[in-house]
Amino acid sequence: MNIVSKTGKILILLWLVCVYPLMSQNTGQISGKVTSGEGEELPGATIQVQETKMATMTGADGTFSVKAQVGQHLIVSFLGMVTKQIKIT
């Protein structure tokens, strides 16, 4: 029974060290501010995480926050402006 107890503790430790970090791989809230080329804030711009249903719009001050992972791309669009794709690093 003592061997099973030690084996169980080792498996839990291995899971915490190896598997858990992979499951929570750099996922979090990405925040930013959308501005024009002249530095003007762009309220109402759309930010979408590419190939997902996650999206948001900028507030009155051009800021946004959206849940995404490192390596994904944000698609930023605003009426009358060129759509930009930005990789999260």
Give your account of this protein's structure.
- The termini are far apart.
- The protein contains one helix and six strands; from the N terminus they run αββββββ.
- The longest helix has 22 residues, at 2-23.
- The chain has 89 residues and is an alpha+beta fold.
- The strands form two sheets. Strands 3-2-5-6 form a four-stranded antiparallel sheet, with no helix packed on it. It has a two-stranded antiparallel ribbon with strand order 1-4.
- The protein has one helix spanning 2-23, and strands at residues 27-33, 46-49, 55-57, 63-69, 73-77, 84-87.
- Helices cover 25% and strands 34% of the residues.
Entry summary:
Helices cover 25% and strands 34% of the residues.
Give me the secondary-structure topology.
Blueprint: H1 2-23, E1 27-33, E2 46-49, E3 55-57, E4 63-69, E5 73-77, E6 84-87
Antiparallel strand pairs: 1-4, 2-3, 2-5, 5-6
Number of strands: 6
Please bin the fraction of helical residues.
10-25%
Widest beta sheet: strand line-up: 3-2-5-6
Helix tally?
1
Radius of gyration: 20 Å
Structural class designation: alpha+beta
- Distance between the terminal alpha carbons, to the nearest Å? 47 Å
- H and E string: HEEEEEE
User: Could you say which overall geometry the principal axes of the C-alpha atoms support?
Assistant: globular
Task: Tell me the β content.
Answer: 25-35%
Arithmetic mean of pLDDT: 78
Uncertain runs are 1-9, 13-23
| Biggest sheet statistics | 4 strands, antiparallel
